[in-house]
Amino acid sequence: MINLEIPKRLQAVATMAHDIGASLFRPISRKYDRAEHAYPKELDALRPILAGMDDGGAGVGAAKGLSRDKKDREARKGPKNGRNLATVLNVMELCWGDLGLMLTIPGQGLGNAAIAAVATPEQKQKFKGKWAAMAITEPGAGSDSAAIKTTAVRDGDDWVLNGEKIFVTCGERADVIVVWATIDPSAGRAAIKSFVVERGTPGLEVARLEHKLGIRASDTATLVLTDCRVPAENLLGTAEIKRRGGFAGVMQTFDNTRPVVAAMAVGVAQAALERTRELLGAGGVKPDYRRMPQLCPAAAAELVRLEAELEAARLLTLQAAWMADNGKPNSRQASIAKAKAGRMATELTLKCVELCGPVGYSEDELLEKWARDAKICDIFEGTQQIQLLIIARSLLGKSSRQLR
Length: 404
Hints:
Blueprint: H1 8-34, H2 46-55, H3 66-75, H4 83-97, H5 99-103, H6 110-118, H7 121-126, E1 132-135, E2 151-155, E3 158-169, E4 176-182, E5 192-198, E6 204-209, E7 220-231, E8 235-236, H8 248-282, H9 298-325, H10 331-361, H11 367-374, H12 384-396
Parallel strand pairs: 1-4
Antiparallel strand pairs: 2-3, 3-7, 4-5, 5-8, 6-7
């Protein structure tokens, strides 16, 4: 059974992440929100720090760590708290500082989660220390990842990739790109594989950078692959097309990254709620937990409701991560956490802007920025609607063909 107390070992690392959010992220948050597409050079100092945290089992990009987890379970019996739980705790604290800056920390991309999830030991060693972005979405394939049209054709010792990828987080800055492509379009989703494309590979082009509502500190790129050759050993997993369960290995990445996205939502929501409490408290509006909400001022009652929503999302996120650490299938819980947290953060941050009135809407406060940043948590890594569909399929025992 999950213990709701955060272990002292992980609490110490989360405290370090909180300090980074407070001392580094917050002071430059507005600067890079305004200077979209400018790389935050202040983050370069974090790479060796977070690499050390990763070696200790608490890196932001270390979403799985199965081999280490298995060894730990063999060494001791009973529930454990490992890399997944450490990751979401770190992400919550860093996103309390700034969500956009967290997304562009060198060496901590979402593609690193894919490498951790399905790469061989040799591949993990080869790409150790690399900053990996994730390229999945295409102009004609958004939430339906199985509709991917980018192709990979074997040619001697290489795979040749052709296609276009959009909305690639850190697509211009990352060292490598994890590209989803099909090796046989006639075979459907079973033929979709992940390929690691290194920066500078001929045929890989950054076509444009997107201008966005939020997370402006993070670059979002469109990539075009034209006869892009990658070594055969850069295919993550096996080239075998398995008609049953073949897509599961690729989709396992989402089981790892969706709790991380939920943690992002929890972090930015926590920041907004804390600041709203401070601003309203200065005006004499404070929750009175000894009274029924309906007997309190409307603003105070709303704060209590938002606190409950935030706590529910936080606990669901910790549950999904804890299950992964303990080798329990967590696809449903990962989607539940992501769906709840994404919706919660969007609603909560907008409500905080509303409660604080003109102060919340102005650039004198970060509240309006947090409201803009939060929305992405309800969209990327699978939209709110897709998460609800996944949850429904799981609960009803339906396949993707049976329930669309």
